[in-house]
Structures are given as C-alpha cells and as structure tokens.
Amino acid sequence: MIQKFRWKFIGMSIMALFVVLVITLGALLGVSYTQSHNEVDRVLTALVNNQGQLTPRNAKPVFGNQKDPINKNFLAGEYNPEAVFQYRYFTVAETPQSNPRIVNDDNVYDVGRAEILSTSKRIFKDKTTDGVVTIGNNQYAYRVGKNQTGRKFIVYLNESLIYHRFSLLVRVSIVLGIGALIVFALVLILVSKKAIGPIITTYRKQREFITNAGHELKTPLAIIAANTEMEEMLGNNSEWNKSTKEQVDRLTRLINRLIALARTGETGEVVLNKVDFSEIVKKNVNSFKSVMQKNNLKYSGMIMPDLYVKAEKNVLSELINILLDNARKYCDKDGKVLVTLTKGRLGTNAILKVANTYKEGKGKDYSHFFERFYREDESHNSKHSGFGIGLAMAQEIVHTFHGKIHVSHKDDMIIFTVILKLAK
C-alpha cells in the first residue's frame, strides 16, 4: 500500500506540473501567436496606407508612439525604425486594362513573376480584400487597397518569416516542457520516500497498534471464555452465559479480522507462489455446504479445473471465505448462492464470481462497499452480523495478489468478481 501511495503521489505531482506547464507555455505561445498576427496586420496596414512602400518614417504612425503611455503597444515593444527592413514584401497594381502589373519586387527573392501575376489576377477577379496565399516556398498575407486614381493594388507580405519566431518558440517549449517533466520526475522519485516518511511512520505505527492491541485483547477474552465454560460445567447454563459466549466469539472474530487486515496491508509480507486456484475454491465451497443448507439457501458451484495463479494459499483461502460468508449473510431468505470459477476470454485471467440473491440491491451505490468499516445500515442495528471490514480485507488481499475486485448487481443478484492473472 505504501508503494502504491508513493507512486500515486509521484504521478499526481507530475500531472500537476504538466498542467502548470501546459497553462504557462500555452499562455506564452498564445501571446506570441497574437503578437505575430498583430504584427502582420500592422505591416499590411502600413503598406496599404503608403501604396506598397515601407520606410522607417511612414511606418511609425501604424506601429504607434511607444513613448505615449496611452497609445503604447505593450506586446509590440518600443518602436525601432530599423525594424522595417526585416520585412519581405512586394506590390502588384491593376492596369487600366484590368491586368496585374508588378510595381515593387525589390524586397523579395526567388519569387516567380508568372505565379505572382496569375495569383493577383485571380484576387482581382474574386474581389477579395485580404487573405493568405502560398507563393513559392513561403506563405504571403495580402491586402487590397486603392491608389489616388482609384486603381486597385495588392500588397503581399511574407508572413512565414514573422511566424517563424512563433514556430521556433513552439519547438523550444515542447523540448523544455518534456525536459522539465523528466527532471522533475527523477528528482521526485529520489525525494518522494522522504517526503511521505511521516505518513509511512504513522501507517506502520497504526498497524503495529492494531496487531499489539489485538493480541492484548485476546488474553482477557480467553479468560472470560474460560470462566463462562466453568460456569456451564458447574451447572449454571443460563441464557446469559450463552449470550456471553456469543459475544466472546464475535469479539474474537473481529480481532482476528483486524489483525489480518493490518498484516495484508503490505505486499512484502506475503510470499506469492503458484497455487491451484481451482482446488482452493473447491475446498472452500464444500466447507460452506452445511452452513448454506442450515440457512435454507440453494447453493451451487461451477469450478473449472487446473487454474493456477500467483498467490499465498492460506490468504487466498481467507479471501474465498470472506466472499462466501458475505454471500451467506446478505442472501435473501430462501435465496440462492452461486460460485463460478472460469478462465477469461483471452485465456490470461482466472475469474471468480460469488453471487447471491439480493433483490433490494437494485439501484444501490456500491462504490463504498470496499471501504473499511462501511455498513449499509449506518445505525449498526442491522440484522446481519458483520463489522464492515470483511470486504475491505478482501480488496486488500486481491491487491496484494495484483488482481482486481468489483461488485455489480444483475437479475436480482449481487455479484462479487475477482480477477487474478493465471500463473505460467
């Protein structure tokens, strides 16, 4: 259990860091993308306003006065006149014959004139005002404007270069994020044992207390049982003595269950070997026949032979006893109890099912059934004798064997299913 808690702690911590990184880096990338998008928009605006010509002087009104606290663009930073020379753009004008003509391509390299003209002709024809096109190996944002004579012209801006900073930041963020997660995970694995040290100490002390207190309580119970038997031998066989014996037996069972529950808390205390699951189930099913008959229950078992699992024989037997005893206690009057042991569909698991008639179970919440000391009757005045630790102990045992256990309700029957891997 401690190791499970440790790895759960590590997993949740890494997940928390992952969420923080996603939010932080995502926000950073979002700001960078917005900045690049706004930069493209500002440059196109400057180009259109100046009919395809961009200079440090005519670009300043669009980029803003960064010394003005009201109009200052915080994301864009302070305006640098030299920055306009980094942009690659060209302009295409419409002739009186409505044909496109390249008027400024000094700021681009290796762009086919035929491709520019055909693309511009299509844009003039479609009457679109802005958009994005691919020319050569680059992506160009364009915007349509009008000159002083009313003739249309198109300015093209190479936005691939502007968004290159954003794509670089994406790659760096991914690498740094993965690196941070790996480093954090390694550090967490190294220090996690020390971090949960107080919890480990408290848990071990709790288990030791339960075990020691259980053994201490057995002594006075043994004396009470012996005194009661002596009273009976002396002829004082009253209903009070009978009640005392029943309560002593009940307390003894409770103490044994508590000690067993404490001992099954750590996998290291149970040595797993290859055991005959079929034989153990068969033996325990047969031992409950008389008890089931005494309660007027229809009892049957269907056990597939030669199914072996990795477990501890006595602890596995205790698991089956808990499930059978639970089925006996909570089965409806004159109901039936059915036990099946089969091989899973893929042939890798052994599946044990213990089912009993329980008509009132339809629609109930079964999510708490395996919690320690959970009782459906919160007043503890249930007609069924139980302590609320049997199923919790069953779950501990199954987890110790690296298996799964769950409960369901179908056709007026409550079904407990245990899945264990078959041993090779």
From TrEMBL:
It is an enzyme of class 2 (transferase). The lineage of its organism: Bacteria, Bacillati, Bacillota, Bacilli, Lactobacillales. One of its GO terms (biological process) is cellular response to phosphate starvation. InterPro entries: BphY/WalK/GraS-like, HATPase_C_sf, HATPase_dom, His_kinase_dom, HisK_dim/P_dom, HisK_dim/P_sf, Sig_transdc_His_kin/Pase_MprB. It comes from the Bacteria. Residues 212-424 form the Histidine kinase domain. It comes from Lactobacillus johnsonii N6.2. One of its GO terms (cellular component) is plasma membrane. Keywords: Kinase, Membrane, Phosphoprotein, Transferase, Transmembrane, Transmembrane helix, Two-component regulatory system. Its EC number is 2.7.13.3. It catalyses: ATP + protein L-histidine = ADP + protein N-phospho-L-histidine. It is found in: Membrane. The chain crosses the membrane at residues 168-191. GO terms for molecular function: phosphoprotein phosphatase activity; phosphorelay sensor kinase activity. This is histidine kinase. Pfam families: HATPase_c (PF02518), HisKA (PF00512). CDD domains: HATPase, HisKA.
